[in-house]
Amino acid sequence: MPFEFRSLMFVIVTLLVVFFILADISEIEEEFGNHGGASRLYLPSFQHRPNRSIAMEIDPTPRAILGGNDAPLLSSRTAPSSSVWSFNRTLSNLIRKNILKFLDAERDISILKGMLKPGDVIHYIFDRQSTTNVSDSLYRLLPEVSPMKNQHHRRCAIVGNSGILLNSSCGPEIDAHDFVIRCNLAPVEEFGGDVGRRTSLVTMNPSVVQRAFGDLASELWRGRFLRRLRGLEGSVLWIPAFMAKGGEERVEWAVRLILQHALHVRTAFPSLRLLHAVRGYWLTNNVLIKRPTTGLLMYTLATRFCEEIHLYGFWPFQHGPQGNRVKYHYYDTLKYEYTSHASPHTMPLEFSTLKELHSQGALQLHTGLCDTTA
C-alpha cells in the first residue's frame, strides 16, 4: 500500500474520531443546558455577565471572603434568598439523570467484597505512585452488597460542619428528614439542639482519627472513638481509605476496633473512580473545582437516592449573613483560609453553585435560624 494512501487514511480516521468525540460532548452539553428552554437552568457558568443583577452574587475579592479586620463584612446578599422556596421536581430529576451519566451512587458508594481480595495492591487516587495493600481487617468490612441498594427517600438532609449551625435550633428539623447524612464523624450529642442527633450515613476521612480522636493513642481517645461509633447504631460509615497516602494506619486502627468490639455499623469504602467521576460532572458544567469537598460529594451521591435534598451547615465564610463571626466547625477551634491556593478545595465556588441550585429549586440551602414553632 503506497505511503501517501496510508497517510491519507490515517488522517481521515483521526478526523472521524475527533468528530464523534466532539459530537458526544456537544450532546451532553446540550442536554445539560436545555431544560425548558435554551438557557442553562441549573448550573451557571459563573462567568461575568454585565447585564446580570448582582443582588445574589458573592463579592469575589479575597478580602471580603476572608473577612479580615479591615475587610467589609459579608452582607446578607451572600445568603440564599429569604423568599419562599419551592421544590423544582422537574429540575431535580434532570440533575439526577445527568449525574447518572457520570456515576451511579448505588454502585460507586462502596467497593464490594467480590471486587478485591486480601493482599491486593491499590494505587492511591491522589498519589498514583504510592500503593497500599488490602488488609485482612479491611477486607472483612467490605460490604457484600451496596449499602444503598434499592434505597429511595423522599426528604434527605446533608449536614455540613460550619459554625453557622450554632444557635440555629435546626436539630429537630434535621432529625425529621427521612435520611440524614453527616460529615467526618462530627459530634452530635452535645450539639443536638442545633445539629440534630439522627445519622443515616456519616463520612470519616482518615485525618479525622488524628484531628478529633488523638490518633487513638490512648485508652481515653479510643474510648471516645468507640462511643462515637456506637452512637451510629447501624448507620453507614463511609471511609475513603484509598484517596491519599498517609492515612492507611489510621484506617487500619479504625477497622480493627470495629471488628474487635463487634460494632453495629455498616462500613462502605468508595469506589476508586468515584471522586474523578464527581469532579468530571461538575467540570463539564463549568464549575471549576479542584477537588470536591465531602459536602459536595455527598450532595452529588444523594441525588441518586433522595427526591428532595436539604443542606445545613454549609457556609464557607468567617462572617454570617448578619455580619456575626462564624466558626469554621461548630465543634472545635480549627481555622482555615477558605481561599488559600494550597487548599485542595474551592469552597466559595462550591457555595455559589449550591446557592444557584437553591434559587432554582433543585435543593434547599438552610443558612438561618430554624422555625421551632412548627
From TrEMBL:
Localisation per UniProt entry: Golgi apparatus membrane
Topology term for the membrane: Single-pass type II membrane protein
InterPro entries, per the entry: Glyco_trans_29 (IPR001675), Glycosyltr_29_Sialyltrsf (IPR050943), GT29-like_sf (IPR038578), Sialyl_trans (IPR012163)
rRNA processing is among the record's keywords: no
Disulfides per UniProt: C156-C306
Signal peptide from the UniProt entry: 1-23
Keyword Disulfide bond included in the entry's annotation: yes
Protein name per UniProt: Uncharacterized protein
Gene Ontology terms describing biological process: N-glycan processing; oligosaccharide metabolic process
Alphabetic keyword roster: Disulfide bond, Glycoprotein, Glycosyltransferase, Golgi apparatus, Membrane, Signal, Signal-anchor, Transferase, Transmembrane, Transmembrane helix
Record-stated family: Belongs to the glycosyltransferase 29 family.
Gene Ontology MF annotations: alpha-N-acetylneuraminate alpha-2,8-sialyltransferase activity
One Pfam family cited in the UniProt record for this chain: Glyco_transf_29
Domain of life: Eukaryota
One Gene Ontology cellular component annotation held by this UniProt entry: Golgi membrane
